[in-house]
């Protein structure tokens, strides 16, 4: 028996096995069913990454220079890096794909397609990851933020048009954010 949460509901997967033991696993993963550029993962199928470095960028990664320090760190320490953003320039995409293929880096952009449903998704990711969204509106730059110590995520599982993140924030932070979103939905419906 396997229990998980999806869209605010507890779900269970039951698998038939011949065994004398029953294992119950509770996961703190939150699922995001959203369209994103899957080119970085197409040869990997379902990719599960644990203990990964990440950055959340409110905007487009426009030049390699913006993530130069991240690419350098990734090539030196061989750790996994996930970039949540709303776009990646073709030159940047080509550089990341080429470095990943050659096993120089393990950098995985979650390049989310901007739609009405995805406008606030980076804030949701920031809350559950216990981090902030890097934004030019706050005077932040991608390069400066990368030079600081990036936060670590516990686990992310990536599939086509779907990814799930293990919650890092406290249950209080999660429930507070969820209540805030529910009130916004209620007010929008009025």
What can you tell me about this protein's structure?
- With 190 residues, the chain is an alpha/beta fold.
- 29% of the residues lie in helices and 27% in strands.
- It is built from five helices and nine strands; from the N terminus they run E-E-E-E-E-H-E-H-E-H-H-E-E-H.
- The chain has helices at residues 68-77, 90-101, 121-129, 142-147, 171-189; strands spanning 2-6, 9-13, 25-26, 29-32, 47-56, 80-85, 106-111, 151-159, 162-166.
- The protein has a six-stranded mixed sheet with strand order 4-9-8-5-6-7. Strands 2-1-3 form a three-stranded mixed sheet, with no helix packed on it.
- Strand 6, helix 2 (90-101) and strand 7 (106-111) form a beta-alpha-beta unit.
- The longest helix has 19 residues, at 171-189.
- The relative contact order is 0.20.
- Mean pLDDT is 84; it is low at 1-5, 7-12 and 23-27.
Which class do the helix and strand fractions yield?
alpha/beta
N- and C-termini, Cα separation: 40 Å
User: Can you count the helices?
Assistant: 5
The run of helices and strands is EEEEEHEHEHHEEH
Give a count of the beta strands, DSSP E runs of length 2 or more: 9
Our Rg estimate from Cα atoms comes to 18 Å
Strand sequence of the main sheet, in spatial order? 4-9-8-5-6-7
Q: What is the oligomeric state here?
A: single chain
Shape: globular
